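call fold target=Sulfotransferase
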Amino acid sequence: MKTGLMQPATFDKQTIMDRAVEAAGSDDFGDPWFEKPLSVLLTALEEEARLHESGAWVAMKQCEKVLVDRLRAQRWFARHPEILARPLRNPVFIVGPMRSGTTRLHRLLSADRRFDHMRSFETITPVPYPGFTHGEYDRRITLAKRARKVADLANPHTLAIHPTGPMQPEEELGLFVNSFWGMKHEAQWHVPAYGRWCEAQDATPAYEQMARLLRLIGWSQQASSLKPWVLKTPQHMLDLDALLNVFPDARFIFTHRDPLRVVASSASLAWNQTCIYSDHADPHEVGREWLRKTRLQVERMQEGRKGIAPDRMIDVHYESVDADWRAAMKRIYAFLGLDIERAWPAMEAYRDSVDAMKRQPHRYSLAEFGLSEGQVMEQLGGYMRAFGVTREPRVASR
């Protein structure tokens, strides 16, 4: 896709960093560790992603925006040192493969005011703009509304797969993007070399930056630092050791779902994003990659659980929440040691709002991504047996 409306994109790291410095009026990026994943990502965008002209321009601008956010974050930390002193006590992490029901549980728990949670506009732009004042309208909300409209125009299927809005509870994906880290990039662009590089690294610095930004978000929300955060993103499946390094008192809700559904739905989500930025996106290539990635997530999760005390984790199956979400939430609240009675009205209100957010059903199949049930079961059948995961009805085709 060529538009002729913009200058050619560059993926030269120094050029992009210099532009961010000029835009932010500062040159303090904080921990320089982020430059390693940034370099690998930029090379992959240039050499692997096969982006069209506008896709390359958007990728470049996204990288510049993240760098500006880092610069602004450092300025907030310098001006308000109390931000980094905020405790992050006993956070609750919902950990599961993509499309395994983590969003549903996250939003149900987020409805309870005894937890803190991130909102969609905060994961899009984790750092308040200069001039932000507590109690006044946050301009990041306007940006999130515009981003949602652009996403809807670019590919309406994306919001059908993951309905959201600027004020909706959302995962901490943007806090990892701030370090140019993780699966968000792999779901947006075809960058397999970048993904494999990340898989071989210690993610602790990315989690340390995530924690700093979480403190900044809590400060900007004027949230009580005594309340635990409820958090979730599939990235944690790969990086449980790093998570525990930074959040040693974390509690975990592990979600499980039929991998035939998880793989097909993950591939569909990635495909519906990748094809926005490239005219050469290959659905079969996407399918192979997300089967591999799902298997790796499961393997890393099983290994990482060995470092977690049994009384700090609980397993929840997708189909059990489908069958009786109230019973599933009672189990979770018993695990967390909280009285659920006071949470029912808020959770019921959330459930009532779900139908208003839903659009067309998300339909997908393994076949459209060049996969068979046998291929998935060969790689993930052991996971099903280990966690008692049952088969769901056959995945519908488009």
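return ok
The chain has one domain: 89-387. Residues 53-79 form the longest helix (27 residues).
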